Amino acid sequence: MSDTSNIFSGFKTLSKAEWKSNVLADLKGGDFEEQLVWNTYEDFKVQPYYTREDLKSPSLVDAPRDRTWISYQEIYVDDDVQANKEAHVAISFDVGGILFSVDKQVNITQLLKGIDVKKIDISFTGREAIQVTVDYFDYLSTQNISLDKIAGYCDHDILSKWLTSGSELIYKGLVDLVKLSSKAPGFKVIHIHSGDFVNAGSNFTQELAFTMNKMVEYIDQLTEAGLTMKEVASNISLEMAITGDFFFEIAKFQAVKNLYLSILKAYGIEETKIPVMASSSLWSKSRYEMHVNMIRNTSEAMSAILGGCDTLLVKPDDRIGHQTTAFSERIAANISNLLREESYLDKIENPVSGSYYVESLTGLLIHHALDLFKQTEKDGGLVAGIRSGVIQKKINVVREKKVKDLVEERFIMIGTNKYRMEGETIEVPKSTVEMQILDGRQLLNPVSLGDLYVQEKTVL
After folding, report:
1. Cβ neighbours of residue 31 under 8 Å, at least 6 residues apart?
2. Which residue of 169, 276, 309, 390 has the fewest C-beta atoms within 10 A of its own C-beta?
3. Burial degree of 257 (CB within 10 A; 0-12, 13-18, 19+)
4. pTM to 2 decimals?
5. Which residues partner with 97 through β-bridges?
6. Contact yes or no for 69/253 (Cβ under 8 A)
7. Under 8 Å CB-to-CB from 43, ≥6 apart: which residues?
8. Under 8 Å CB-to-CB from 418, ≥6 apart: which residues?
9. Radius of gyration of the chain (CA)
10. Any alpha helices (H) in 225-315, and if so which ranges?
11. pLDDT tens-place string over residues 69-79
């Protein structure tokens, strides 16, 4: 057998300067910055190649990472019996978590009939999320199910509702939920969304920073209400909305784990793992091109998994403005299954380890997001920034640039990108760019990119 210990010994190691010299020769006088460097919405200058020399911003801390992820499916509860049937169908698709969206009172026993809650994560969202969570814990007691055997979350992100609607900031219900779930370490009740910022048009730095500001707001409010820092930290879960920028999304999911660990460490909390869910964003979806949405969902799910998400909620491709079908729900579940069973993405602990590009992006996002986070806290925090309009203005600057680039076809997305006929000009109305005003406060206005066209349906 031949000796392969020095298999690469014949290859000369090139410095970054030597790489650039060769590239410049190939450009034959062309401008390197203009032709090959990409300027992002974070004002990052993305280079055409990366080497070890680019790793100047190492991760702040070592973030925990699991090999696999739990697939979720959302079920809207209009009828308890029908929702239970849909849950069983989802479980037959190898879904490991069910998110029940509940806007009215339900019979929890009927809703969970035949479901082994020790094997399937059970979570709740919607207007009745608090009450159904209370009912769920009563159900667990009557069934003699140990609270340390369950997992899931209650989606009661009151800051999210306040950011996007006229709801009030009342934390008492959340305090009661934390006390209720104190003996259920796998069930989280402080569920924090990043989608409010993503769907309003933020860049990645803003999404990460403002989500961390949101987390700190919860920590401060709930500890002031009498909860301990440990009680609060152990009840947090994050839900990061996924968009179509493949490599930035990978870096984002790696960065968020570094950021939350660093922030918790500042509060004196060590080695607390916060579960990070990845969910389909509204921003990157078309209202009329369902098959395009399917492709985008697949790419987005892959980037979230490679980035290390703990749970994954792929929303059906016809969810925007349509009644979802059994087919679209099956496809949404299958995306996760295919990435696990046929792409083997659960077999390697960190598939992107050693990628100079991704590691460089991760470092940039960590440090830029941390700077923006600190500045926002210095200025009074998330709530103060929203009330003053500073945060909305920062997001709106990015949003308007994205809209302009999209209309001018400089914003490239997976799938069908041309939304207009040859020679036809489409104007973007100001009402889709400006944010809604309520009681003197600008709301974050969620929107899909497809909605930014005046007549998207007629010109496709």
Report:
1. none
2. 169
3. buried
4. 0.88
5. 72, 121
6. no
7. none
8. 409
9. 23
10. 229-233, 246-266, 290-307
11. 999 999 999 99
Q: What's the CA gap between 290 and 416, in Å, rounded?
A: 11
Domain ranges of the chain: 16-49, 70-357
- Between CA 104 and CA 460 the distance in angstroms is 38
| Neighbour-count burial of 324, counting CB atoms closer than 10 A to its CB (0-12 exposed, 13-18 middle, 19+ buried) | middle
Q: What does 403-449 look like in DSSP terms, one character per residue?
A: HHHHHTT-S--SS----S-TT---PPPHHHHSPPEETTEEPP----G
What is residue 210's DSSP assignment? H
What pLDDT, on the 0 to 100 scale, is given for residue 175? 95
Q: How many residues does the chain have?
A: 460
First to last CA, the chain: 61
- Helix-strand-coil split of the chain, %, nearest 5: 45, 10, 40
Distances (CA, A) of 366 to 305, 321, 345: 19, 35, 24
Q: How many Å apart are CA 82 and CA 321, to the nearest integer?
A: 22
**pLDDT on residue 449:** 58
Distance CA 330, CA 245 (A): 25
Collapsing DSSP to helix, strand or coil, 340 comes out as helix
> Per DSSP, what are the bridge partners of residue 75?
100
Tens digits of per-residue pLDDT, 261-307? 999 999 999 878 999 999 999 888 877 778 888 899 999 999 999 99
- Residue range 49-94, pLDDT digits in tens: 788 777 765 545 556 666 789 999 999 999 999 999 999 999 999 9
Spatial separation of the C-alpha atoms in residues 394 and 369, rounded to whole Å: 13
**Domain 70-357 carries which CATH code?**
3.20.20.240
Amino acid at position 314, single letter = V
Instruction: Give me 314's structure tokens.
Output: 């792929």
Which residue type sits at 184?
A: A
Under the banding of pLDDT at 50, 70 and 90, the label for residue 166 is confident
Which residue matches tokens 């497809």? 450
Nearest-angstrom CA–CA distance, 111 and 108: 5
Among 65-74, 183-192, 400-409, the minimum mean pLDDT is found in 400-409
Tokens 């401008």: give the residue.
Answer: 31
In tens, the pLDDT along 198-234 reads 998 899 999 999 999 999 999 999 999 999 999 999 9
